[in-house]
Amino acid sequence: MIQLYIPLNFLGVIYREIKQSLTDLDKMFVLMEKEREVSDRPGARALVIAPDAQADATVRFEDVSFAYEPARPILQHVSFEIPAGKTVAVVGPSGSGKSTLARLLYRFYDVQEGRITIGGQDIRAVTQASVRQAIGIVPQDTVLFNDTVQYNIAYGRPQATRAEVEAAARAARIHDFIAATPRGYDTPVGERGLKLSGGEKQRVAIARTLLKNPPIVIFDEATSALDSANERAIQSELKNAAQNKTTLVIAHRLSTVVDAHEILVLESGVIVERGTHAALLERQGRYAQMWAMQKSEAVPLL
Ligand code: ATP
User: Fold this and answer.
1) DSSP per residue, the chain
2) Quick one: signal sequence residues (predicted)?
3) Ligand 1 atom showing the smallest separation from residue 302 Cα
4) What is the pTM of this model?
């Protein structure tokens, strides 16, 4: 019996390994599928961000319209600017197109009308890789690779040293948690390794972004509420990571939007209100309504 058990057990391990690899491959194909949505123009050059050459990290959406499928427009004539180093926050109901704005800026898709520029350069005219090099993303659900903590944090800058990875993890306040595991930064994460909570995964993504140190940052704030102490802490780490960066925030919490240079209220792909927190409250429109609701019921912004 034992003679049979050992090979069967071994096969079980192999099966799990293969299944895991397939999960990773799956993710890779999903990513590759996205890659195929856009292709670089022949001879496309890299994006240039050099403040002294007046190509600073200002992001502009100019009259952008976009549809995933021709019959169903998602964004319609959207225009806004995020001056270099400033933050623009987007709020609005689920399905209004907030994440689509982020996907377009990261060039998962090309816009069908209008244009998006970084430092005055149309992002369709430069290489996709250089656009992505300039942007750090902290998504709602961070995909972690089945690899070590070190690999996952250094993902955006693989040549980073252990000391640099550790400094980023400290700033994202995930270092103590990592250091308390038996293998520290060599601990595998993911389905076969250390399981991380939503908040911890976000901290890994923040550490990744800090380490990459890109001029532009996109935050897709989690809708699911973390406990409030944890949430306040994450907010402050996010703020840290966005310091002096051109930042697009898809916001679900008032505390995130109050300091934004501009807040956009998106409904069915159209900007229906825009302005600073104070100006929008004064206007007593849609945003003021959302604000009142969140204040009274402590519910996230839509
Ligand atoms: P939420 O707050 O729920 O994340 P959102 O405002 O970010 O919503 P988007 O994710 O931008 O909304 O989606 C806008 C619309 O586009 C939705 O109706 C969605 O169903 C549709 N959509 C999103 N991705 C695709 C896709 N790949 N193909 C087709 N339609 C899509």
Assistant:
1) -HHHHHHHHHHHHHHHHHHHHHHHHHHHHHHHHHHHH--PPTTPBPP--BGGGTB-S-EEEEEEEEEEETTEEEEEEEEEEE-TT-EEEEE-STTSSHHHHHHHHTTSS--SEEEEEETTEETTTB-HHHHHHTEEEE-SSPPPPSSBHHHHHHTTSTT--HHHHHHHHHHTT-HHHHHTSTTGGG-BBSTTSB---HHHHHHHHHHHHHHH--SEEEEE--SSPPPHHHHHHHHHHHHHHHTTSEEEEE---HHHHTT-SEEEEEETTEEEEEE-HHHHHHHTSHHHHHHHHHHHH-PPP-
2) none
3) 2
4) 0.83
